Amino acid sequence: MKKKLSKYLSYLTVLLPFFMASGAISSSPFSDIEKRKTPVVRVVERVAPSIVNISTQQIVQRRVSPFGGIGNPFFNSFFKDFLAPEFIQRFKLKTLGSGIIFDDGRKVLTNQHVINGAKEIAIITSRGKRLSAVSVGSDDVTDIAVLRLKGKTGLPPIPMGTSSDLMIGETVIAIGNPFGLSNTVTVGVISSLHRSLNSEGKIFKDLIQTDASINPGNSGGPLLNILGKVIGINTAIYSKAQGIGFAIPIDKVKKISRTIITYGHVPPAWFGIDCQVLTPSIARHFNFKGDKGILITAIELGSPAAVSHLRVGDIITAINQTTTSSPLMFQQVLNQYLPGDMISLSIIRNGKEETLSLKLKRLTARHGTFLIRRIFGFGLRELNRKEKAFLSRSGISIGIAISEVIPRSLASANGLQKGDILLQLNGSDLKNVQTFHKGLIKHLREGRFELVLLRGTYTYKLIFNLYKQ
């Protein structure tokens, strides 16, 4: 028996190499694939159904000169306020971007610049299915937008992580649709944290910097950690960057998106001061030896500024260590924060440096009168009987009147006059002063205001870009 077993084993020893060489005994191709699956591959497979391509279509209009190709500045100077519809050219513009499914599986996170001005929004899944979506709201300051899928179709929401414990050097994965190429994957590391950028007149704070390639079309896609959880939303806001990408931290995105879902936009924070630029003569008067700061000239009763015991004559030099050198810059820095946030103020009082903490509140339409005077430098009133009668003869039933223009204000510098009738603000009819207050609050963070006004029998359009002065 032992001899037979020994003989059998000897045969097996001789034949085994031939079986292995011929593939009779080999590893399964399926097991080879599993061995080749790196953590990056597994993350991509897991999250792919939650990443979508966003295609938008918007109607763009531009003014066409009635003088054709003359291009004479003399004629064009008269034409700049000409609003005749036959000289407005309209065409369709398509944009591409990325997004992620989150929350209940019927909401999509993306960048604001991806869907800005869109009339139609299409969502294309990783399997090529096309769905329609509508905007829930967006925020120009943080470049975040929330969409909602139409109908009852839902998609798997992506796992959310946190950006509170990120490490410089840790591996990250960016997925998006650069140049329309769906679900393109790039891998890199976190290069830096809490980056600030000034791009096209906008300040972007607290960004994640990565060397993972992020191009137009990647915007709105996820930045993932090696566990497959979202730690940021990619944003292609810095066109000059080479080998540098940026993402909005997901903790900030969560906070902004919740606010958008609640209000349809991000309400600006209420601070409650009026202020002016610190000139050299004013600085000497207040014994201020620095060169950057703003002087508080008025404080709203009951405002966060009043509660924190700020005083007229105090000089604010920084908010959370970000310097402020003008009222508009102060407002732009303030726009980075939300109602309920605690901020730290660096101030100079009686020549001495102090630090105060302040809790911001929500700015509402009831603060409109104060804001209008501080930002634009004019007052508003309802139309009187004579003005209403004049407008009704032209079939116009809307409008409010400018009651005063403050000298050396933004309104004064742009030629606004007492008695001018405002018809629209950012495309919305102005039915009463309250309508203007609401529009001001809604668009204060982005800082772009388009006014249509009537003076006599002439209609004019004025555009104010507060943060691009």
Description:
The termini are far apart. It is built from 13 helices and 26 strands. About 1% of the residues have low confidence. Helices cover 24% and strands 36% of the residues. By secondary structure, the protein is α+β, with helices and mostly antiparallel strands. The chain has three domains: 229 residues, Thrombin, subunit H (Beta Barrel); 94 residues, PDZ domain (Pdz3 Domain); 94 residues, PDZ domain (Pdz3 Domain), CATH 2.30.42.10. Strands 1-2-3-6-5-4 form a six-stranded antiparallel barrel. A six-stranded antiparallel beta barrel has the order 7-8-9-12-11-10. Helix 10 packs across helix 13. The chain is globular and about 85 Å long.
Mean pLDDT: 84
Strand order of the largest sheet: 1-2-3-6-5-4
Summarize the amount of helix as a percent range. Answer: 10-25%
Strand content: 35-45%
Multimerization status:
single chain
CATH fold assignment of the largest domain: Thrombin, subunit H
Topology:
Layout (H helix, E strand, L loop, with lengths): L1 H20 L7 H8 L2 H9 L3 E13 L9 H7 L8 E15 L4 E4 L1 H4 L4 E5 L5 E10 L4 E6 L21 E6 L7 E16 L2 E9 L11 E4 L4 E6 L9 E5 H14 L5 E2 L2 E5 L2 H6 L8 E6 L4 H4 L7 E5 L2 E2 L3 H8 L7 E8 L2 E8 L1 E2 L5 H8 L2 E4 L3 H8 L7 E6 L4 H4 L7 E5 L2 E2 L3 H11 L4 E8 L2 E8 L4
Antiparallel strand pairs: 1-2, 1-4, 2-3, 3-6, 4-5, 5-6, 7-8, 7-10, 8-9, 9-12, 10-11, 11-12, 13-20, 14-15, 15-16, 16-17, 16-18, 18-19, 21-22, 22-23, 23-24, 23-25, 25-26
